[in-house]
Amino acid sequence: MPIRIDELPRKKWVMPGNPACQGCPHLIGLKSVSMALGDRAILVVPAGCTSIIAGIHPKASLNMPFLHVPFASAAAVASGISSAMEIRNKDAIVVAWLGDGAAADIGFATLSGAAIRNENILVIVSDNEAYMNTGIQASGTTPWKARTTTSPIIGKTEETKDLALLMLMHRVPYVATASIGYVLDFIEKLKRASEIKGFKFIHLHSPCPTGWRFDSSETVKMARLAVETGAWILWEYYEGKMRISPPSMPYRDKNKRKPIREYLLSQGRFRHLKDEDIMKIEQRIDERWKAIMKLIEIFS
Ligand SMILES: Cc1ncc(C[n+]2csc(CCOP(=O)(O)OP(=O)(O)O)c2C)c(N)n1
Ligand SMILES: [Mg+2]
């Protein structure tokens, strides 16, 4: 049965008046997590924008069990809490909610360790493609050529790390990509993942108006453009099978994709791109689609 947004719980887990920037994608992600998992979720969160959004007692804005932990440790702490919950027979879903910097770079060792031990945790990486909380420094997932405060003139010169594929190669039971532009798809994935015992990983695309320099009213539009141009591919792996998710289905066909120029040039961080850069980015998107389709063939 497809999920209907009006049938999901209405309880306010994410309170209004919190200190997030206008148009913050993390809020959409956190709301989706709480609507999908309800009071079963225990959040483990390393330093990042979400630590600030959560605020401090007695004015905390996230109405759910929430643990602030050192940057590199979230997956390890979540593993410990999960074991404790099991011993106490508690029906909880331990969620490590990480930024891309925490997941792809600084906390990658604990993330990889928890995955290979197949810990019973759900890891969600809300990827805004830079270290936003400390002022937009480039991370492992920042795209090639994106301007950040550590790549200010010509943009980032290194490649993007494909975190979801890296996690898939740990042979864990559940890996998916998601987008804050398609919350029902994300919520379905959260619900499916929460039924599985073992390590679950969701890589959530979270366009950041402050860091990417677009208008704060366009967060969802930007997330959808990433999917419509084929730049962000929605897929899911579970029960040994990998599939393209419904919102990305049409874009398997290259001719159905919107021009990547539209996505790139509506963001300040890419406004310096030359035609040849845009062509290269388009080629890379084609290559990624080919790789994903090949993997789908393998895991079919
Ligand atoms: C060990 C350690 N190194 C650096 C920092 C400083 N720091 C705090 S938040 C942050 C950025 C986090 O970026 P990301 O994980 O992508 O989350 P975002 O803020 O973008 O949501 C950094 C570098 C820290 N708190 N601890
Ligand atoms: Mg980030």
What does this structure look like?
By secondary structure, the chain is of the alpha/beta class. Helices cover 37% and strands 14% of the residues. It has 11 helices and 8 strands. The protein has helices spanning 25-37, 49-54, 74-87, 100-106, 108-116, 163-168, 183-194, 209-212, 219-228, 260-264, 275-298; strands at residues 41-46, 66-69, 93-99, 122-127, 174-179, 200-205, 235-238, 241-244. Strands 2-1-3-4-6-5-7-8 form an 8-stranded mixed beta sheet, with helices on both faces. Bound molecules: thiamine diphosphate and magnesium ion. Residues 47-50, 71, 99-102, 106, 128, 131-134, 139 line the site of thiamine diphosphate.
Short description:
The chain is an alpha/beta fold.
Distance between the termini: 23 Å
Count of DSSP H/I helices: 11
User: What percent of residues adopt helix (DSSP H or I)?
Assistant: 25-40%
Radius of gyration: 18 Å
